[in-house]
Structure to design on (177 residues):
């Protein structure tokens, strides 16, 4: 991006302990999206539900755009900040500093990871934790406007940075072995 580091010395936290269950996402592939072809669903009553831990597993290892740490290590995201309804996911994230210029990129990384992994039936809202960013309303508006997100994803430099953040997504299982 512009080379300015907004938080040159972030606090890095230990990774949370995993629950005893195996995540559906540890293979790096979505259970809902078949990379080989279209998903066939024959019976609407067989819709599989997901919970906040599964969503957290999808986003916890996304790399921070400024540091060699995951969003979980910087406490930008946590399972407690995720709300899952029947077909609706709301994620609240906490920037490391109130003036973080990377907040929109972090939120966009979370949105793209979920768009690539969840079934299309899910509506996803991404929000900055209230009171944690000086431009909270502007960031929230940017992250939840389809046209603004689409325009951002047409910027090759931004997409390249975004892909670097997402390279580590889904790799958290190696950290617990």
């Amino acid at each position: 991006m512009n080379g300015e580091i907004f938080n040159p010395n972030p606090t890095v936290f230990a990774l949370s302990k995993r629950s005893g269950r195996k995540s559906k996402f540890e293979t790096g592939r979505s259970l809902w999206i078949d990379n080989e072809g279209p998903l066939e669903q024959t019976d609407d009553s067989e819709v599989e539900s997901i919970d906040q831990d599964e969503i957290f597993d999808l986003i916890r290892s996304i790399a921070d755009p400024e540091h060699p740490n995951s969003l979980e290590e910087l406490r930008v995201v946590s399972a407690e900040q995720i709300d899952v309804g029947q077909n609706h996911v709301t994620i609240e994230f906490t920037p490391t500093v109130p003036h973080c210029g990377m907040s929109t990129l972090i939120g966009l990384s979370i949105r793209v990871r979920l768009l690539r992994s969840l079934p299309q039936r899910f509506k996803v809202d991404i929000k900055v934790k209230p009171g944690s960013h000086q431009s909270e309303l502007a960031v929230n508006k940017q992250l939840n406007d389809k046209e603004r997100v689409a325009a951002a994803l047409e910027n090759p430099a931004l997409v390249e940075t975004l892909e670097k953040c997402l390279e580590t997504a889904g790799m958290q299982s190696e950290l617990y072995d």
User: Anything to note?
Assistant: The beta strands are 82-84, 88-93, 123-128. The radius of gyration is 16 Å. The chain is about 30% helix and 10% strand. The helical segments are 52-59, 103-117, 136-143, 146-152, 156-166.
